Amino acid sequence: MSAARPIPNVIPPAPAHVRRNRAMLIAGIAVLVALFILAIATMSLPTWSRVASGLQRNALPLLRGLVRPETKVLELAWNSMVVTFFMAILGTALGALLAFPLSFIAAGNLLGGTRWALPGKSLLVAVRTFPEIVLAVIFVAAAGPGPTAGIMAMGIHSIGYLGKVFSDVIEGIDQGPMEAIRAAGGNQLHTFLFAVVPQVLPEFASNVLYRFEINLRSAAVLGMVGAGGIGLPLIQRLQFRRWAEVSMFLIVIVAFIVVVDALSSRIRRRLV
Amino acid sequence: MTETVGPAVGHIAFEDVEVVYKTGLKALKGVTLSIPKGQFVVVVGLSGAGKSTLIRTVNNLVTPSSGRVVVEGVDITHARGQALRAARSDIGMIFQTFNLVKRSSVIRNVLSGRLGDLPAWRGVLSAFPKADQAYAHDCLARVGIPEKAYVRADALSGGQQQRVGIARALAQRPSVMLADEPVASLDPPTSHAVMSDLKRIAREDGITTIVNLHFIDMARDYADRIIGMRDGVVVFDGTPQEATDAAFEEIYGRPIDDKDLRGA
Amino acid sequence: MPDQAAALPRATGRVKSFVTLALVAALFVVAFGQTKFNLGALFTGASDFFRFFGRLTPDLTALPQIWPPLLQTIQIAYVATIIGAVIAIPLVFLASANTAVDPVSMWLARTLLTVLRSIPDLLWAALFVAVLGLGALPGVVALTLFSIGVLAKLGSETVESIDPGPLEALKAVGAGRNRTIVFAVVPQIAATMVSYMLYVFEINVRASVVIGFVGAGGIGVLLQTYMNFFDYPGLGALILVIFIVVLAIDGLSVWARSRLI
User: Fold this and answer.
1) Is the pLDDT of residue A4 over 80?
2) B36 in Cβ contact with B11 (< 8 Å)
3) Domain residues for B123?
4) What does the alpha-carbon distance between residue C172 and residue B71 come to, in Å, rounded to a whole number?
C-alpha cells in the first residue's frame, strides 16, 4: 500500500513573467546600489583621515561628557525647555486657528463650492513646502529674536499640515445630519454648529495634538536661529563643545519629549 | 538521481497530558492515548472541547502543564531549541485558515515546508537544493495543482489554498500529519475532495494522521479510528462502526442535528 | 425617574468639559506669560512677511550657483535613506513583539528607537557638525539616525499587525527565527516597507534642505548665505528651485507609493 514512489528530478521552468519580474527586481536593486555608490563618490565627503583626526579630537571628550551630564545647567535647560513647550502650544494653536477657515475653503464640499478648493489646496501645499526655519529667520528679522518669532514660524508652517488634514476630515463627513438640520428649518449657522462641528471636532483635536508633538521638536531647534526656546543655549554649548552641559540639555529634551509624546498619544487614543 | 519515500514509522503517545492556560482555563484534563504508525485518527467534539489544544501538544505549539507527548520515541514536550525544531520538522500541520503567506507564490509556500531540515543560511537566502525544489513541485502535483506553482497564493480558491497547505506539510516528508479543522472554511464538495486527498496521501506514505473535525458524517467516512472529546477529556475511542448516533450524542452532550453533518 | 437618569450623565459631561476648558485656558495664560508672546508682532510680522515675499523676484542667473548644493542636498537625503533602511531592518524585527529574540533586547531596541525619534533632525545635525566638522558628512549621519528612528518605528507597527497564521505554520515546520522572518514576515511587509522608505526619503529631502543652517551641508548653506546678505533675487530663485524639487520628489514618491499597494 505504501509502496516507494519514485520522485521525478525535474523542476518545471518558471513562466516568463515570473522570470521577468525577478530580473526587474534585481535590476531595480542594482540601480539603487549604483546610485548609492555614485552619490557617495561624488558628494565631496571629507577624507577618512580628516574624519579620523576629528573623531580623535572630539570622540573621547564627547563620550566622557555624555556619561557625566553637568547638573549645574539643569535649571537653565529645564526653564528653556518649559518655554519651548509653551512656544509649541502657542505655535500649534495659532496654526490651528489660521488653518480652520482655510480648510473649509480647501475642502470644497461645504463652503464656497469647488471653485476655491484648488487654489486653497495649492496654498496649503505651498505653505507646507516652505521650510519652517526660513520662516523663523524671516520673523527673527521682523520681530526681533525671541519666542514670538518661533511661534509665528510654527504657526504659519503648521497651517499647511493642519489645513490639509482638516480639509480631508471635512471632505469625509456624513452629509446626513446637515440635511436633517436643514430639513428641520435650521439656517447655515445652525447646520455648521450642530451638524459639522460635532462631526469634525474629535479628529481635528487629535490632529492638532499630533502636530503639537511635531512642533515641540521644531520648537527645540528653532532657537538655533534665534527664534526662542532651548535651541539657542544648546547650540552655544555645542559650538564650544561643552559636552557635559550638552549632555544635560539632551537628557532634558529627550525626557520632556518622550513624556509629552506619551501623554499626547494617550489623549489622542481617547479622542478618536 | 531518484529518491524514494519509504513507509513512515510514526507513533504518538499521550501520557496523562494536562493543559492549563494562563487564563486558568483547563483545556486538557489528563489525556492518555496511543496512536500506532500509519493510523488515520479523527478527533471529534464541540468547539472548546480541547481538540485544537490536543493536536497542538503533538508538535509542542502548546506545551502541556503536566504529562508529556512522545512522538517517534522523542519526548517533544520537553524538547527545546534545535531538538524541538528537528522534531517539528518531522510533523506536518495543516490549518483551518490555511496559514499560507498570501503574497508569496504557491511554490514558495510549499518550499517553506523544507525550512526545518535546511541549514539556516540556505533558508535565509532561499537557496534550496535542486532535489528539494523538484520535491516541492512533486508535492504540488500530488495534491493535483502542479500548474499553480507560480501563482500568488491569494489568487487561489479556498480548496486550492488548503491543497497548498497539504503540499507544504507534505514537503516536510513528515511521519506525522496534524490537521486542525482542515475543511471548516470550505464548501461541502470541496471538503470531501480535500479530505480524500489527505487520506490518500496519508495512506500512500504511511503517515500517522490526526484530524480535528466536527462533522459526524465526515468523521465516519474517513477515520480509521474516532476519538471523542468533551471538556478536555476523552469520552469516546473506537472505530467508525462503533461511533453511532447515540455515541455522538454522548460526545456532544446534546441531540445531533443537521448542522453536525457536512453532507455530500 | 427616567428624566433624572437622563440628566445625570449630561451633568457630569458638562462639568468635565468645563474643567477641560478651564485647564486649556489656564495653559494659554501661562504660555503667554512664559513666552512673552507679543500679539502685536502678529500684525507687524505679517506685514514684514508679505513685504519679504514681495521682494523675492527670482534672479535666474543665480541658478548655476544653485545646482551643486542642490545636488548635494538630494545626495545627502538619498544616502541617509539607504543606510538608515539597511540599519533599520534588523531593528524592526528586534523591536516587534512577534519577531523579537527576547524581552530584554526588545526593550533595548525600543528604547533606542524612542531616543532616536525624540531628537529633532536639526539637532542631530548640529550635534554631528560639532563632532565631525562642517560639511555633508554630519548631515548624512544625522539624517541616517533620524531615518532609522522613523523607519523602524513604522516598520515594527507593520510587523506587529501582520497575519500571525504563517508564523504559526512555520513554527510548526520547525523553521528557526531568521528563516521564519524571511518566509513569513518579509513577504507580508515588503511593499509597505518600500512605501515607508519613499516616505522617509521625502522627509529627508525636506530636512536636508535646512540642515545647512547649522553647517551640515546641502542647499541650506547657500540659503543662509543669501539671507545673511539680503540677496533677495538670489533667494527668490533658490526658494523657487526648492519648491519645484520638493514638490517633484513628493509627487514621484506619492505616485510610486500608490502603485505599490
Assistant:
1) no
2) yes
3) 97-173
4) 14
Return residues 183-212 of A near C (CB < 8 Å): none
Our CA-based measurement puts residue C31 at a distance from the nearest CA of chain A, in whole angstroms, of 5
Percent of chain C with pLDDT over 90: 57
CA–CA gap between residue B56 and residue B66 (Å, rounded): 14
**Can you tell me the distance from the alpha carbon of C241 to that of B105, in angstroms, rounded to the nearest whole number?**
45
B103 and C178 within 8 Å at the Cβ level: the answer is no
Q: How many residues does chain C have?
A: 261
Task: Check B85 against C172: CB less than 8 A apart.
Answer: no
Per-residue confidence band for A247, with pLDDT thresholds at 50, 70 and 90? very high
Contacts of A6 (CB under 8 A, 6+ apart): B2, B3, B4
Within B118-215, residue ranges assigned H as helices are 120-124, 130-142, 158-171, 188-205
What are the pLDDT digits (tens) for A5-55? 666 777 888 889 889 989 999 999 999 999 999 999 888 777 788 888 878
B38 close contact with A: CB closer than 8 A: yes
Radius of gyration of chain A (CA): 27
Q: How many independent structural domains does chain B possess?
A: 2
ipTM for the complex? 0.88
Distance CA(A35)–CA(A41), nearest Å, equals 10
CA-nearest of A48, A238, A43, A49 to C80 is A43
Q: Which of residues 168-187 of C touch B (CB under 8 A)?
A: 168-176, 178-180, 182-184, 187
* Three-class DSSP category at C128: helix
In a domain, B262, yes or no: no
Q: Which of C179, C180, C181, C182 to mutate to test the interface with B (most CBs of B within 10 A)?
A: C179
**C243 SS3 class:** helix
Is residue B180 located within the same domain as residue B83? yes
Q: Which CATH class is domain C60-260?
A: mainly alpha
- Min distance C260 CA to chain B CA atoms (Å): 13
Q: Is B204 on the interface with A (CB under 8 A)?
A: yes
Instruction: Give the 3-state secondary structure of residue B235.
Output: strand
Sign, CA dihedral C86-C91-C96-C97, equals positive
Last residue of a domain, one of B173, B191, B214: B173
The verdict on a CB contact (< 8 Å) between B99 and C165 is yes
